[in-house]
Structures are given as structure tokens and as C-alpha cells.
Amino acid sequence: MFARILRHDWRMLRADLAILAVAVIFGTAIALALANGAGWTAGREAVLAGALAEEEERFAELQAEIHHLERDGGRVSPFRDPRNPSTLGHSRGGRYAVMPPGPLAAVSIGQSDLLPSYYRMSMEARELMASAAELENPHRLLAGRFDLAFVIIYLYPLLILVLGYNLLSAEKEQGTLTLTLSQPVRLRTIVAAKVILRGAVLLGLAVALCALGLVLARTGTGDGTWLPRLALWCLVVAAYGGFWFALAALIASFGRPSATNAMVLAGAWLVLVVILPASLNLAVTTFHPVPSRVQMIQAIRLASDEATAAGSRVLAQYYEDHPELAADTTERAMTDFSLIRVAVNDEVERQVQPVVLRYHTQLEAQQRAVSRLRYLSPAIVAQDAMNDIAGTGTARHRHFVALVDDYHREWREFFVPLIFQRARVTTPETIPRFAFREEPFRGVVARTLTGVAALALPAGLLAWAGLRRLRRFPVTA
After folding, report:
1. Does 356 reside within a domain?
2. Alpha-carbon distance 276 to 379, whole Å?
3. Structure confidence at residue 360 (pLDDT)
């Protein structure tokens, strides 16, 4: 009987062309989303490649200039001397710390269009470093990009609801439900067959189209986790779809007319996908306001101006803190611009530490609040999981920033002794390079499976509640 219901329902779906319409809409949206995501990723890769090419060209010019000065004994301003470690460390020798696009960046751009993906290294205060990011339309950044994750989060539930809003109401309104139940079949069997058929078709369509799109739009770092990430992505899509099918089954169990079911499900979509995420974002930013980054930058610059004005005193204090670097000719060192600049940088770091700490403390409080409250909305859970899998989430960027901090310390540890020893750099290639390392993949797996569980648990509860409600289902109008 179960198989017979499946075959009959499949014939009914084919007759009204619902599946064909859903497939065309879904396929078109996925194709456009993948094209847009692939275009954005290609643009990002071009920007990063351009930065690295500029670095290689600049270092080749530095090496040629050093050869010329060493061979011909030419003269050059100390502030432009390519052999001067201060000049190299602050400006001319700056290398780029680059985070390549995530393994599946084309399918979920996430916040990677907001968060910097590269920094040009300098001996200046860490917070003063900023990538030469392209100017973006603020309305586009506010609305987000149209990518595959956008299609899954917003359009996918609507297509499920189109196929699921009249699971029982259509037959009840046509008068065929009573006839069907006159056969040796239970109402829950009918509902299970309808949900399984629609779920198999739509989930299968979603997974197949997403997998095909991911294969065609394959990008990233080639860290060997591409296939596992693809499997995780499909698992999230299936869990997210299962939640909406379970919700549709629960609404259908109340026995309301099709129009009422459609309105209730549309309202649920609006609340869970649009209103609730926006409300949570507003609440988090209200209760955990982050200090203005502009004010933080102003505080850093003010500290820099004050430290520069008191350069000699700051340098003397620096020598007291680091006696191993003190030169024999202290009087000369006191007037040495490069030495004063190192001391000023150290003083700026010290003065702005409370400001930076307050900024990051509030930002972390926001992220913790979002992490706790995200389970109220399946859309937030699915979006976070997709961003994480694609390598465009906040976790990967925090990992990148931690690597940049380590590189900044390594950078200063390389140049500061050279500056205090008044050494010359004759081979710029010895300057430390940045090496990006992906975060451990097991962390991505753990976070993704937590999200899948957060989707599967309420889906199971909704399905259970719907099956219980079917015991009181009004078969006749």
C-alpha cells in the first residue's frame, strides 16, 4: 500500500507540473548564484594575485637597486636606502599576509566581502595595518551577495512549502481523502508517503544541483578537504530541508484549508528566515555595542603623535627595558630617527592596548551572544554552517588574524635587532615571508555537525508532534 501511494502521488505531481516548475526555478537560481559566486571569487583571487605580483616586482627592484649601490658606490637618502632595515621594515620591504579564498568560497561568500583577506606588513602598530581594500557599495554589503547559500537559505524553504502546504488539505477539499481512508491504510502512512516522496524529489534535486555546482565552481587552497566539505554541505542542505518538511507536515496535521496552511507557512518562513535573524542582530548590537573602529584608529593615531613628540624620552625608556640593545654611543642613538621610531611603535602598542582590548572584548561578546541565540532560527544555523564549510566564516578569519599577529611579532623581531645594530640588509629575500595554514579540519567538522544536530532535533520534534496531531485530524470538512 505504501508503494502504491508513492506511485499515485508521483503521478499527481507530474500531472500538475509542480515538480518541473520547481526544478526549473531551482536550477536557474542555482546557476545564477554559482555564476555570481564564481565571478566574485575570481575577482578576489585576481586582487590577491596582483598584491603578490606587486610584492615580487618591488623586491626585484630593491635587489637591483642594492646591487647598483654596492657595485657603483652610489648615494641615496637614508630614508630611501633599500639597505636600511628601518626603511624596509616600515615601508619599502613590506610583504603581504594573504588568506586565499576558502575551499568552497564560490558557493557561500559569507562575510569575506567585509573582512580583509590580506594585510601589508609593517613595523607600525598592529591595528594601524589595513589592507588596500576595494571600495564597495554599502547597500550591496548590507543586503549580502546572491550566492548558492542565499538560494538555499531563502528560496529552498519556499519551494518546499510550495510542495508541502497541501499535503492533506488538497485531497480533503476534493473529497478523495475519505475514499482513500476507506482502504486498509492509516492517515499517518499517507502523510509519510507524501513527505518522503516530496522530500526525496526536492532534497535529491537540491543535493544533486548543489553537488554539480560545487564541482563546477571548485576553488580554494587544495588542502585535501574538498570532498569532505562537499559531503558536509549536502548534509546541511538535507537537514535544513528536513526541518521545513517537518514544519509543513505539522501544519497539515491541523486539518486547515490549503489557503490557511499556505499563509501560516509563509508567515513562519518570514519570521524564521527574515524577521528573527534581523531582530537577533539588533538585540546583540544593542546589548553589546562595539566601540567605533574610527574612534579606535583615532586613539591609535593620537598615541602615535604623543609618542613621536616625546621620542627621545621614549627611546631612553626603551633602552632601560631592553638593555641588550643599547649601543655604545648612546648620545648618537638618542637622535637616531630609526631608533626613535622603533621606540615610538612600542609605546603606541602599549598605550592603545586598553582601547583595542575593549573593542575586541565587546566584539567577542557579540559573537558569543549570536552563537547562543542562533539556535532560535534554522536559517542562522544553516548559514553559519555553510559559511564554515565554504571557508568564509568568522572562525577561519579569526584563525587568519591570529597568524597575522604571529607574523607581525616575527616581523618586528627580525628588524628591531638590525636597526639597533645599524646593520645593512643586502639580500631582501631574507625578510620573513607569511605562510598561511588552514585551521584543523576537525574543528570545521565539529561545528558543522553541531549545526546539523541543531536542525535535526527540532525537525524530529515537529515531525513527532505532527504524527500525534493526526490522531485528531478532521477527515471531513
Report:
1. no
2. 9
3. 74
The CA distance from 467 to 190, in Å, is 11
- Whose CA is closest to 167, among 239, 238, 244, 240? 244
What tens digit of pLDDT does each residue of 62-113 get? 998 888 888 877 677 766 788 888 888 888 888 999 999 888 888 888 777 7
- Paired residues of 118 in beta bridges: 98
Whether 159 and 22 have beta carbons less than 8 Å apart is answered as: yes
C-alpha separations of 184 from 12, 176, 249, 256 in Å: 21, 15, 22, 24
The DSSP 8-state label assigned to residue 96 in this structure reads E
pLDDT value of position 39: 86
Q: What are residue 120's DSSP bridge partners?
A: 96
Task: Check: CB of residue 407 under 8 Å from CB of residue 97.
Answer: yes
Cα dihedral sign for 179, 183, 188, 194?
Answer: negative
Question: Would you state the pLDDT for residue 340?
Answer: 72
pTM for this structure?
A: 0.83
Q: How many domains does the chain have?
A: 1
DSSP letter string, 277-339: HHHHHHHHHHHSPPPPHHHHHHHHHHHHHHHHHTHHHHHHHHHHH-GGG--S-HHHHHT-HHH
Percent of the chain topping pLDDT 90 = 25
Residue 16 CA to residue 23 CA, distance in Å, equals 13
Give 379-413 pLDDT, tens digit per residue: 999 999 999 998 888 889 889 999 999 999 999 99
pLDDT tens for each residue of 285-297: 788 777 666 666 6
Domain holding 74, by residue range, is 2-271+293-348+378-472
Distance of CA 330 to the CA centre of its chain: 50
> What SS3 state is found at 119?
strand
Q: Which residue has the higher pLDDT, 90 or 414?
A: 414
Which segments of 109-226 are extended strands (E)? 118-120
Cell of residue 113, nine digits: 566581502
Look at the alpha carbons of 375, 378, 381, 384 in this order and tell me if their dihedral is positive or negative: negative
Domain membership flag for residue 282: no
Is residue 369 in some structural domain? no
Considering the domain boundaries, does residue 260 fall inside one?
Answer: yes
Residue 473: exposed, middle, or buried by beta-carbon count in 10 A (0-12, 13-18, 19+)?
middle
Q: Cα separation of 369 and 280, whole Å?
A: 9
